[in-house]
Amino acid sequence: MTVVTLGVHIVDVLARPVESIPDGQDTHLLEQIRITAAGAAAGTAVDLARLGVDVFSMGAVGDDELGDFLLMVMGRHGVDVTGIVRKDGEQTAASILPIRPDGGRPSFHVPGANLSLSPADLDRERVLGAKVVHLGGMDVTWGLYDPAFFALLDEARRGGTVVTMDLLSNMPDLMQGARSFLPHIDYLLPNEEQALLMSGASGVEEAATALLGEGPTAVLVTLGGEGSLIATASGITRVLALDVPVVDTTGCGDAYCAGFIAGLVDGREVVGAARLGTAVAARVAGGLGSDAGLDGARNLRDKE
C-alpha cells in the first residue's frame, strides 16, 4: 500500500444547522443529518481513498455496531481496513456534532477504543513497507507513547518511508506529550491552537519555527480561513485559503492532511503539496461531514 493511516478512528453523527439545543422534549427540524467515518486517521484515510490513493488504515474500534458501521463505510470508500483491530468490551469512539449556521462545530465525544491502541495491535511490515505513514491523533493514543513504536518509526524512515503527523485535541497537557513524537516524524500538521500549545510560543510563526527545531523537516500550521503557514529550513511560506461558502468545518484538517499526503505521493515539493491540501479542505468545508464534496476529487491531483 502507498499510505498507511495510523491512529484515531471515530464515528461522527452530524446535524445542521443547529442554533440551540431544544428545551425539555421539544424538537427542532433540521436540513441535514449525516453519519460518517472520521478522526485523524479514519477521516484522512477516506479522503485519501477519494483522491485515488491506495491506503491501509490501522487503529482500534469496539466490537459493536458502531465499529461495524465504521469498517463498512471505510471499506466502501476503498480503504483497506484489515489493519483495524476490534476490542472486546470497548465502545467504538464516536462524536455528536451539532453544526452551527456559521459552520462552527461544538461536540459531544466518547474516546472509546482509541485509548487502548498499542504497538502490539499494529502490522509492523505494513508500516515498514509504506511510502507514507500518517500518524493521526497521537496526542490521544497513549498506548503508542512507547519506545518500541518510536523505534519502528525510525526504522521505517531509514528505509525511505515519510512520516506525517496530525493531532486531535486542544488540551494543553496532551499537546506537550505529543512533542515526544517530533524527533521521529518528517512533517507536523497542527492547527494554530495546537501549535501554540505545543510550543508555548505567543505567535504562530514563532511556534512553527520552534517545533521545526525539534526534528521535523517541515511544520505546516493550518489557520482556518487564513490558509496555512509552512515552516522549513528555508523560512516561512504562507498558502492562502480558497474563498468558498463554509457549511461545516468538520474534517477540514483531515482533508488538508490527505491532500498534502497525496501531493507527496505524486512527487510535489512541500508548498505544492500544501496547495493541494488547501484545495481538498475547501471542498470539504462546503458540505456536511469530513468527506463532503469529494465526489470526483481525484481530478484535483491533476488540476491543483
TrEMBL record:
GO terms for molecular function: kinase activity. It holds the Pfam family PfkB. One of its GO terms (biological process) is phosphate-containing compound metabolic process. One of its GO terms (cellular component) is cytosol. Residues 14-290 form the Carbohydrate kinase PfkB domain. Keywords: Kinase, Transferase. It comes from the Bacteria. This is Sugar or nucleoside kinase, ribokinase family. It comes from Streptosporangium subroseum. The lineage of its organism: Bacteria, Bacillati, Actinomycetota, Actinomycetes, Streptosporangiales.
